[in-house]
Design goal:
By secondary structure, the protein is an alpha/beta fold. It has helices at residues 18-26, 45-55, 70-82, 103-109, 132-149, 165-170, 182-193, 217-235, and strands spanning 4-11, 32-38, 59-63, 86-91, 115-119, 127-128, 161-164, 198-202, 205-206. The protein has one domain (4-235): Alpha-Beta Complex (Spore Coat Polysaccharide Biosynthesis Protein SpsA, Chain A), CATH 3.90.550.10. The strands form two sheets. Strands 3-2-1-4-7-5-8 form a seven-stranded mixed β-sheet, with helices on both faces. A two-stranded parallel sheet has the order 6-9.
Length: 239
């Protein structure tokens, strides 16, 4: 039986993007399935996802009762995936800021890595349509996280990733505390501290065209204190 891979796509009010992003993902590799994790979007995204799933057995939907944040949505998707026979599990945005054309590169890199991270900063700065203030915030956040945690990656806050299932099986999801962009740092840090092999591949990130950004001051504050929490819990062996 051939390997199966799953792309987890969290959604909240993505009715315009979803019918476009899902086919673009599926056409990259016949082994790819998509799991839409919808947080009860009021714009009907969940209903559109159900229609797509009814028409294509490679599309699946996980409905959640309320909007609880990006990290909680991904963990729910990971739990769903681990109950099935997927060997590679991806996380990816629904708004085309993560281009599906890079998925084959992730699959190739995962043959020699446990966690593949799509990096905006691996080869220079590959970000399109961001204001300079947002870019400086992102660059500063990554430098800050690397300095505090020692995590040896150039882009620890990016959300385009591929996990081998063994990585997710080794992480106790009940102990994952972060939820916003800090969630990306925490998951990579936990994988690294457990001795898994992390590899970055360069991607081009294009800011979303449809919908609104999920960035907020609360998310930034969470990231600021979370890196110190990770470092401290690691030092006292409470991670």
């Amino acid at each position: 039986m051939s390997e199966r891979f799953l792309v987890c796509v969290p959604t909240y009010n993505e009715r315009n993007n979803l019918p476009l992003i899902v086919p673009a993902i599926l056409e990259q590799d016949a082994r790819l399935d998509v799991l839409v994790v919808d947080d009860s979007s009021p714009d009907g995204t969940g209903e559109i996802a159900d229609e797509m799933a009814a028409a294509d057995p490679r599309v699946h939907v996980l409905h959640r009762a309320s909007k609880e944040g990006l990290g909680r949505a991904y963990l729910a998707g990971f739990e769903w995936a681990l109950k099935r026979d997927y060997t590679l599990i991806f996380e990816m945005d629904a708004d085309f800021s993560h281009d599906p054309k890079f998925l084959p590169l992730f699959i190739e890199a995962a043959q020699d890595a446990d966690l593949v991270i799509g990096s905006r900063y691996k080869q220079g700065v590959n970000v399109i349509n961001w204001p300079i203030s947002r870019l400086l915030l992102s660059l500063g956040a990554n430098q800050y996280a690397r300095m505090i945690t020692g995590l040896p990656v150039s882009d620890s806050t990016g959300g385009f990733k591929c996990f081998r299932r063994e990585v997710l099986e080794a992480i106790d999801f009940s102990r994952v505390r972060s939820n916003g962009y800090a969630f990306q740092i925490e998951m990579s840090y936990r994988a690294w501290r457990k001795g898994f092999r992390l590899v970055e591949i360069p991607i081009v990130f294009t800011d979303r065209v449809e919908g609104q950004s999920k960035m907020s001051r609360r998310i930034v504050r969470e990231a600021v204190w979370m890196v110190w929490s990770l470092r401290f819990r690691s030092l006292v062996r409470k991670l």
